[in-house]
Specification:
The complex is a heterodimer. Helix content of chain A is 45%, strand content 8%. Chain A is built from 15 helices and seven strands. Chain A is globular. In chain B, 31% of the residues lie in helices and 17% in strands. Chain B contains 13 helices and 14 strands. The N terminus of chain B is likely disordered. The chains are: A alpha/beta, B alpha/beta. Chains A and B meet through helix 7, helix 8 and helix 15 of A and helix 3, helix 4 and helix 5 of B.
Chain lengths: 386, 392
């Protein structure tokens, strides 16, 4: 049989590769491989309430995702980038962060946003094309979404270099030390900026964790087009320890991120995490995945749904009760209503605001153009002939 | 692989502080490169959040020695020899600025800025805007630029218009040691990102420098002792650096950033306005001296800032002279001169005696150095343009 390059992997996903950290299997059973005992100890502290919290976070994230997707279909949003299918990677890693840690997302990290305390509807300023950002990064220690793929990996590294200079690494005081995390996807690893970030982070021993959600597809292009080796294999070449984790196992994602953050905060330097997951939705609402991937592949990953997996675990371990389930459903429905109301309440900004915040101090050209445009508009309002 | 940056020593410990402001200007004669060095030193001494980053800037002191001695005095944590990656330098500077630092990046040569073009134009320039003013990025990018030094390919270019075309950036170029000393400080004090283009062919030229000038130099005014600025009247470029404007670091700066925002008349005249910046200001002054011998009075304007463009100063001059020639090393096509020609035409139409003339590089790649003096705007080519303007 002739090998075809870049042939998409189907049927057997990379999540089954040897060495991928998994603490809960797709059927919701805890795994027993002694190699992961260290990670197992980290999740042993998570009691029933904590597990239910992770479940709640994932359900809320998905409800937000579904609602925003519907709103885009109704013409209320210009675009939406779904996180659907990647909730375990985002919630597991996000819940491992301490409030003082700082996260740099790409543009579909809605689950991470939730863990940072951001009210999810705020994300939709961007997708309603009202603002390029929408929140105060320093209020949530959660940077704005970055659309230029991979460029924020360097910002995260620089921020971590600043944390070093602030003396907030390896102080021995666990409540003082902080770390930085950069989220990006499999496609981003082909960008030079991500390689530069790994290099800068390594030689500076910067307290930064690179969390790659390998969701198998960079729009229409499979991960095999980005890399001939597992993405995590890139780390060691830079001197960055790396780990592959089942990205649909929320407990494994939590554990590997917690370990990497702890090492970073303590002065142990950067880590690259490759979370193997799948976006079950489209790249964005403008995308049509039926053009590039098979139903067979989608079914493989649907059987590995992260929310169903945690539900199975909770049911098997007696952490599930119907009252809890309906409580979460009610919260999700309430969020859906709130998202709709929020989006429909957003009005077009005053056109003059496009001139705001181009510069922090006055810039003559910017000021003159604003004045001209203001006068131009006023000439219509006053009914004068131009 | 731990480095000195992972130690917990408080930032600024053991760093020499700036001397108390002198009441009498301490004027000293310095080469251009040394004036920038002195400005950087003043900023490093006065503001613990200032960092220098770049290739070979530490132990070597930079390939042009602009940062000579600074790593020895301020340490490897504040004067950082970066990996050889321009995007990485600017990208990490953005992160450092978000954390409250004021990074000053050196791009070794003009032609090597392009790996960082994405970080500069899509990230650095837009962060304040896309955060609705919540984030400021006080990052300075120093770029030795321009030709005339007999260098190999990619070492003699003038890419300033590419950055002036990008909203969110300030783009400046000093032409004298005195201005360079003040402007580098004002750039560092600015909450906006500044592209700081240093005319490398002038690095060795000497001039009087008031070392008490500039926001970190000990006095609050930024007058540089050049000929009086006409930029006051009608200038809309009154942007100061007062207050912190949401700045993530640095002390409040008391300056109106005059040199960073305003053009200056460096030689008054009545018959023609000759506009230049950076390396071509000296050329323009020679042109004016030569023309004066022939009875033509040329007013020379040093733009200093390319963004914001102080068109008010240029327009006020052309309103008097009726003629305008713009000279820069960058290609004339779509260049700064084209913008000035358009603005002068719009605002001085009835006063113009002749079309605005442009003298610049050609629409070719920067040629091999044996040809560069044919490519660069020479005294003769500028005089030729002056003659054309006067022939109408």
């Amino acid at each position: 049989m002739t090998e075809t390059i870049n042939q998409p992997a189907v049927v057997r996903g990379a999540d089954q590769d040897p060495g991928v950290v998994r603490l809960v299997d797709p059927e919701g059973r805890r795994t027993a491989d002694p190699a992961w005992d260290g990670y197992r100890e980290r999740v042993a502290r998570l009691d029933g309430a904590a597990l239910r919290g992770l479940y709640r976070d994932m359900v809320i994230t998905r409800r937000f995702d579904d609602e925003a997707t519907s709103l885009q279909r109704q013409g209320e949003l210009a675009l939406f980038a779904q996180a659907k299918g990647q909730e375990a990677a985002q919630i597991g890693s996000g819940r491992a962060l301490a409030p003082r840690d700082f996260a740099f997302p790409s543009y579909r990290e809605h689950g991470v946003a939730l863990t940072r305390g951001l009210d999810l509807p705020e994300i939709l300023h961007l997708f309603r094309a009202q603002e390029h950002g929408g929140w105060d990064p320093n209020e949530f220690n959660f940077h704005l979404y970055t659309l230029v793929i991979g460029s924020h990996a360097l910002h995260a590294t620089g921020y971590a270099m600043g944390v070093q200079r602030d003396g907030l690494v390896g102080t021995g005081d666990a409540d003082k030390d902080m770390a930085v995390v950069a989220y990006f996807g499999d496609g981003a690893t082909s960008q030079g900026d991500v390689s530069e970030a790994l290099g800068f982070a390594a030689v500076n021993n910067a307290p930064v964790v690179f969390f790659c959600q390998n969701n198998q597809w960079a729009i229409s292009v499979p991960t095999s087009t980005q890399s001939r080796v597992p993405i995590a294999d890139r780390g060691p070449g830079f001197g960055v320890p790396s780990v592959r984790v089942d990205g649909n196992d929320v407990l494994a994602c939590y554990a590997v991120t917690a370990e990497a953050l702890e090492r970073a905060r303590g002065g142990g330097g950067p880590t690259l995490i490759e979370a193997i997951t799948f976006r079950t939705g489209a790249h964005t609402t403008s995308d049509d995945p039926t053009r590039y991937r098979t139903r067979e592949e989608e079914e493989y990953w649907e059987a590995r749904d992260p929310i169903a997996r945690l539900e199975a675990l909770l049911r098997a371990e007696g952490g599930w009760d119907d009252a809890f389930a309906s409580e979460v459903q009610a919260e999700a429905e309430a969020l859906g209503v709130r998202v709709r109301d929020f989006v429909r309440g957003l009005r077009k900004p005053d056109p003059l605001t496009m001139f705001d915040h181009v510069y922090a101090t006055e810039h003559a050209i910017n000021a003159a153009e604003r004045q001209w445009f203001s006068d131009y508009q006023a000439s219509f309002e006053s009914g004068e002939q131009r | 692989m731990s480095t000195t940056t992972s130690t917990a020593a408080p930032v600024g410990a053991g760093i020499p502080r700036a001397e108390a402001p002198a009441t009498v200007p301490a004027t000293t004669r310095l080469p251009f490169a040394k004036a920038i060095n002195a400005g950087l030193r003043a900023a490093l001494a006065a503001e613990p959040k200032v960092l220098l980053m770049g290739e070979d800037i530490g132990r070597l002191g930079g390939v042009f020695r602009v940062t000579d001695g600074l790593q020895a005095d301020f340490g490897t944590t504040r004067v950082v020899d970066s990996p050889l990656a321009e995007s990485g330098i600017v990208g990490t500077a953005i992160g450092l600025a978000m954390r409250g630092y004021r990074p000053v990046c050196e791009i070794q040569f003009d032609g090597f800025i392009f790996p960082a073009f994405d970080q500069i134009t899509t990230q650095l320039a837009k962060m304040h805007y896309r955060s609705a003013g919540r984030l400021t990025l006080p990052v300075v990018i120093r770029v030795p630029f321009g030709g005339g030094i007999g260098a190999v390919e990619h070492h003699s270019e003038s890419p300033e218009a590419l950055f002036a075309h990008t909203a969110g950036l300030r783009v400046v170029s000093p032409s004298s040691p005195a201005d360079a000393y003040v402007m580098i400080q004002e750039a560092i004090a600015s909450p906006d990102p500044v592209l700081f283009f240093e005319p490398k062919s002038r690095y060795w030229e000497k001039g009087e420098v008031d070392t008490t000038a500039g926001p970190y130099g000990g006095v609050s005014t930024s007058s540089t002792g050049e000929a009086g600025s006409t930029g006051e009247a009608g200038s809309t470029g009154d942007g100061g650096l007062t207050g912190d404007a949401g700045s993530t670091g640095g002390r409040p700066v008391e300056t109106d950033a005059a040199t960073l925002n305003r053009a200056v008349v460096v030689r008054p005249g009545t018959d023609l306005t000759l506009v230049a910046y950076g390396p071509t200001v000296a050329t323009a002054l020679k042109v004016a001296a030569t023309a004066a011998a022939e009875g033509t009075s040329i007013e020379v304007i040093d733009l200093r800032a390319i963004s914001p463009l102080d068109s008010a100063t240029v327009v006020a001059s052309v309103q008097r002279t009726g003629r305008c020639v713009v000279v820069h090393e960058a290609p004339a096509l779509y260049g700064v001169g084209a913008e000035i020609a358009a603005r002068v035409t719009e605002q001085c139409f009835y006063r113009l005696e002749a079309p605005v003339q442009r003298v610049g590089g050609f629409h070719t790649p920067y040629p091999p150095a044996q040809l560069e003096h044919d490519y660069l705007p020479s005294l003769d080519r500028v005089l030729d343009a002056v003659d054309r303007a006067l022939s109408f």
